[in-house]
Fold each of these.
Amino acid sequence: MEFHFWLYKTLKGGINLKTQVMKKILLPTDFSDNSWNSIVYALKLFKDEVCTFYLLNTYTPAVYHIEYVLVNPAQFGLVDSERSTSMNKLEKFHDKIKKTLRNPNHRIEKMSVFNSLIPEIKDQIKEKKIDYIVMGTKGATGAKEVLFGSNTVHVLNQVKCPVIAVPEDFKYEKPHELLFPTDFEIHYKNKHLSLILNIAKKHTSRVHVLHVSYGYDLTEIQKQNKALLESKLKKVANIFHDVSNQNVEDAIANFQIKNKVNMLIMINNKHSFFENLFFKKLIHHIGFHLNIPFLVIPSKIL
């Protein structure tokens, strides 16, 4: 009903329907302040786009044994109790969205699912053809660094869907300046760059392409990839930066100190520096100086 009403308004207003492709955005939540903050960010980031947001909570009883399910799934009322709690909290979040962030472009669907988070996210990506996942990160206790929570790390590492990780307590700001570090080892495809271009066009953003050199000239493949990237980014404002004598992590941090950046974007390619830079360090609980939203684009998108 909501979609048909939007369609009627669109036709009546004479808007070109080809530009109004509905986005599907998954919002995993554990009902924490951190997850609410990421929901607010998503709703504001896509406020001018027609979207369906899937508010997802997965649950398993605190004490759960498979033999109970095999004999009688509701033997101790554990599943029903957890589901009821999950549904009630989802309804409260939904009501909060309607009261504070109501938007005729947006439709919210609530999903309470008895499953583990990662398998359920994978299922939803395939079933609903999700465009983005937006979720929060967790702050490292007693430090300014943001240490990604284990769920966020697993999602970044395992799902083939773009993920926007929002730092805890980050207050929404328009992404006017986008930082895109790259080693030019990736053959950029439209499905990768369309995500960057979409954000840049919607928010009149400037894309800062950051390359860290180590004293070696670019290979022929890197030169070709760089030329391709330059060609694709002509549609938006962009600046290419080259820095040397720094590791990638320091280069990103130093760039943010000298320049106002609203979003960090990377393509997760196992043959690039991404995996070494983030996953190995995060798995070993090393904090990374990140105080802005982080869009991670998988090299292979479903």
Note: The CA atoms of residues 51 and 106 lie 5 Å apart.
Amino acid sequence: MSATAEPATTGAAGKKTPPKLVFAAPRRAKPPRHLADLTPAERREAVAALGEKPFRADQLSRHYFARLVDDPAQMTDLPAAVRERLTAELLPTLLTPVRDLSCDGGTTLKTVWRAFDGALFESVLMRYPDRATMCVSSQAGCGMNCPFCATGQAGLTRNLSTAEIVEQVTAGARAMASGRIPGGPGRVSNIVFMGMGEPLANYKAVLGAIRRITDPSPRGLGISQRAVTVSTVGLVPAMEKLAAEDLSVRLAVSLHAPDDELRDELVPINNRWKVREVLDAAWAYADRTGRRVSIEYALIKDVNDQGWRADLLGRLLRGHLVHVNLIPLNPTPGSKWTASRPRDEREFVRRLEAHGVPVTVRDTRGREIDGACGQLAATAAK
């Protein structure tokens, strides 16, 4: 993603307002149109434009979203000639698996996908005793340039389409339904937009994906909005826009530092929207939706894990509808950044709890399979 600056303007008092950052992904060819890109009404229009009866769109939606089928041979309620044409036009192949790696006894599955134009990105399916969570990418690469993140250091290739995001979920849903993941046949219950990319920098496609994922079956996958989490590094205008959508998805803010001096370095977008602005937008989201905000905080040895920073974070967060998710950093090869010492992690937790702030330490799945976001895709690209 590139950031361009609109010219500074001069207000009535003669003061210059800072230039507005405009985020734009590199221009590239668009992925083929897919059923998951379209609303139910748009699907019917698309089918009618192909010379078929609009109700065929409902049949196609039932196969794709409810039965998780995209093979025309299995769509026996459609005439053969019709099914071949509709699947060719509305269910094109968008993603090709390049590499699968599993760990945790097969209950964690990480996949590198290649898109139609060669762009690479990742998704992760994690099965727990009580749920199955899909971590999906919203961009191929990322333009936020956070120095401790493998994806951020790779830069942005392009935004993903709504259907490319949804296809990651349906792939995981098929793996669960088929019994491929140990534990027997099951279903994907939770979605987290915490894979490659900054979701709110690809706002329209991400919002469309949320709709497809949460619309009742067979219009969508029928996953509860309350089981969907959207992360952001703090794009304040987009956070405010998301709050106005009246969704009940959870917002996760990747904060990583409670003070502007350090966050300017760790999360460069902080040079545009400071910690207080980001948190104010988060509290407004919580007030509007009634959903607890998750504060994501990667603990980095001798960088952001000092006791005084835990105290500062606790003072900023106490009294709000919030939960802190501490993440032991999953280091990338050759990086100077590494996870905090266990004793420093425990002290950070203790200090936050002393301020009355609920906190957990994230389960670090996938460490042995290039678990850091973007790491496996970078390996596949080489």
Note: The two ends are 21 Å apart (CA to CA).
